[in-house]
Design goal:
Shape: elongated
Radius of gyration: 25 Å
Order of helices and strands: EHEHEHEHEHEHHEHHHE
Low-confidence stretches: 322-330, 332-342
Number of strands: 8
Largest sheet: 8 strands, mixed
Length: 342
């Protein structure tokens, strides 16, 4: 029988403190998969332009472990691009995304593989708890996922990050989506297929500090909302119409008072309040339009999503670029009955 293959994709940026312990745990899990479950596993580390000792550490890991592949980007392109680069290189079998900080336990990988073998294409971990994180990050993440569910038509499960296993056909579908502004959680939901959740408790970081501060989290949320929903534009339209109706009604009331009761027109304070209010509404609407227009501008330039500095595949791993995407495959990459690849 043909053995299944699994590649664990880890995108790392300045994580030289946490990677040694993470790889030790990963190596033990992959060894268990090979012996007990008949799965040939490997690890693909993507160095997203790290400036510390991450790349040197990864080269040492690859020198001692033949299951390790290395991909180094030419600079820091961001986590979404780094994940895309890693998933693009998985041409055989399934891929499992794992954060480099060790918060997502690799010991759950056999359970993910078991659900994949049941026929699921997207096996994702749902966080029951987020240990080691402050109240603001927990509260903002809780609110963000629920806002996205209300605003977007794309299904995105709540409290679910990048910790997931993707089948060969899910990976093939994901490679067809080459948009520049990449909100991976939304892209995972957009491709659809058979999905199942595995609840787990997120652990504290193994070492170091999170690279996502409040400002980066805000921009990340803005990226997700504008990438998968036009609701802000519609809200701006409704707000503009409501403001115009109130302004017209108020203006008509001032005219009636002046004609019939000889009341003086509202003076300086009222005028300035109205001008500032209307100006604020207009600038807010223009800002929303600018966010979407900026994304059209970025897409129109058609720049590559990332550039590769070094690609060092492990033994037995294909080093070619991803082939044309094939459709009509099941969760294990076998051709579905009655459907031919394109």
């Amino acid at each position: 029988m043909t053995r299944d293959r699994l590649t664990v994709v880890v995108a790392a940026f300045n994580e030289d403190q946490s990677l040694p312990e993470l790889h030790r745990r990963l190596a033990a899990v992959l060894a268990g998969l090979a012996d007990d479950d008949g799965v040939d596993g490997g690890v693909l580390y993507v160095d997203d332009g790290s400036t510390d000792g991450t790349w040197g550490l990864l080269r040492d890991l690859a020198a001692t472990d033949p299951r390790v592949s290395l991909l180094r980007l030419s600079r820091n392109f961001g986590k979404e691009a780094a994940l895309t680069a890693g998933l693009d290189r998985v041409l055989d079998g399934a891929a499992l995304i794992l954060d480099a900080d060790g918060q997502d336990p690799p010991e759950l990988i056999p359970e993910f593989v078991a659900r994949w073998r049941e026929g699921y294409d997207d096996v994702h971990g749902t966080r029951l708890a987020r240990e080691g994180e402050g109240w603001f990050k927990r509260a903002s993440a809780h609110a963000f996922y629920r806002v996205m569910q209300r605003l977007s038509k794309t299904p995105m499960p709540t409290d679910t990050g990048d910790f997931r296993l993707l089948s060969p056909r899910a990976l093939a579908a994901l490679r067809e989506l080459r948009e520049r502004h990449r909100f991976m959680k939304g892209l995972f939901g957009w491709i659809g297929f058979n999905r199942v959740s595995i609840p787990y408790r997120r652990e504290p970081r193994l070492a170091g500090n999170s690279k996502f501060n409040a400002w980066r989290l805000w921009n990340f949320a803005l990226e997700g909302i504008t990438s998968f929903s036009t609701a802000p534009l519609r809200l701006a339209t409704y707000l503009g119409v409501a403001t115009a109706l109130v302004a017209f009604g108020y203006g008509l009331w001032i005219i009636i008072k002046a004609l019939f009761w000889s009341d003086p027109v509202a003076g300086w304070p009222t005028m300035m309040a109205v001008i500032l209010f209307l100006g604020g509404v207009q600038l807010t609407a223009l800002g929303l339009i600018g966010e979407y227009l900026g994304r059209l501008y970025e897409e129109s330039k058609q720049r590559p999503l990332y550039l590769v500095d070094t690609w060092s595949p492990a033994e037995g791993v294909c080093s070619a670029m991803p082939p044309m995407i094939e459709r009509g495959r099941d969760a294990h990459g076998e051709a579905a009955a009655g459907v031919q690849g394109s």
